[in-house]
């Protein structure tokens, strides 16, 4: 497993948009899963949970996961709360990296101000039961993508992405290159230049008109 402290430091210099630009195969959770907390930036290995209409497995995960882990819950996209204020507070005590629930979450009076990143598909007052074991640390589907235990979960203002930890270093390096290019383009635009000055727009469009392969790129 790569050094997560090093990878986290590299993530601070980029964002999820640059990651997706650097690697088009990046797994992106659908936008229905939204930040519910004051903090929204996540970086950590997934601790996965699968459950339906019952939050006992989520409680078990909060009490079992290592510090820094991100609880990723496959709740089947159902409008039932699988966590709330007590779970968020407990996750903070345990030093976890965040909670992502494809299902419901509640207690927004606290969660909306919480320093723990909490994401969910729904906000609802109705909680599930606590009588089913569910499954821990198995491949799950969350936000429309497969998440395996140990996959890296990253989030910011743009949304949630999932990376193979063995490829995360190269993807983050490529994302940094994307950000550096963006900075150069922004400097040109701030200096009064146009997008056509910054990119090969004319050449690219002409090539496409001729039916040739071409890539839009910064010049």
Automatic annotation (TrEMBL):
**Entry keyword set:** Magnesium, Metal-binding, Methyltransferase, Transferase
Q: For this chain's UniProt record, which GO biological process terms are given? A: methylation
Query: Which Pfam families does the annotation name?
Result: RraA-like
Q: Which residues bind substrate?
A: 106
Reaction catalysis annotation = 4-hydroxy-4-methyl-2-oxoglutarate = 2 pyruvate; oxaloacetate + H(+) = pyruvate + CO2
Q: Which Enzyme Commission number(s) are on file for it?
A: 4.1.1.112, 4.1.3.17
Which superkingdom is the protein from? Bacteria
GO molecular-function annotation terms? 4-hydroxy-4-methyl-2-oxoglutarate aldolase activity; metal ion binding; methyltransferase activity; oxaloacetate decarboxylase activity
Binding-site positions, Mg(2+): 107
Q: Cite the Gene3D superfamilies for this sequence.
A: Ribonuclease E inhibitor RraA/RraA-like
What the record says about family reads: Belongs to the class II aldolase/RraA-like family.
> What does the function comment of this entry state?
Catalyzes the aldol cleavage of 4-hydroxy-4-methyl-2-oxoglutarate (HMG) into 2 molecules of pyruvate. Also contains a secondary oxaloacetate (OAA) decarboxylase activity due to the common pyruvate enolate transition state formed following C-C bond cleavage in the retro-aldol and decarboxylation reactions.
- Protein name per Swiss-Prot or TrEMBL: Putative 4-hydroxy-4-methyl-2-oxoglutarate aldolase
């Amino acid at each position: 497993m790569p050094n997560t402290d090093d990878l986290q430091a590299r993530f601070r210099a980029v964002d999820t948009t640059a990651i997706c630009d650097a690697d088009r195969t990046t797994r992106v959770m659908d936008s229905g899963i939204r930040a519910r907390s004051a903090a929204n930036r996540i970086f950590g290995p997934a601790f996965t949970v699968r459950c339906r209409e019952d939050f006992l497995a989520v409680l078990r995960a909060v009490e079992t996961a290592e510090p820094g882990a991100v609880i990723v819950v496959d709740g089947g996209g159902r409008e039932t709360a699988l966590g709330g204020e007590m779970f968020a507070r407990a996750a903070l005590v345990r030093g976890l990296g965040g909670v992502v629930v494809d299902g419901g979450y509640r207690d927004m009076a606290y969660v909306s101000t919480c320093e723990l990143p909490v994401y969910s598909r729904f906000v609802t007052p109705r909680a599930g039961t606590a009588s089913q074991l569910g499954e821990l640390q198995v491949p799950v589907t969350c936000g429309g993508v497969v998440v395996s235990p140990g996959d890296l979960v990253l989030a910011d203002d743009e949304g949630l992405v999932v990376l193979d930890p063995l490829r995360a270093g190269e993807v983050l390096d490529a994302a940094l290159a994307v950000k550096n290019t963006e900075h150069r383009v922004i400097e040109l635009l701030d200096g009064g230049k146009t997008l056509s000055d910054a990119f090969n727009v004319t050449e690219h469009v002409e090539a496409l008109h001729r039916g040739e392969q071409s890539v839009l790129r910064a010049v």
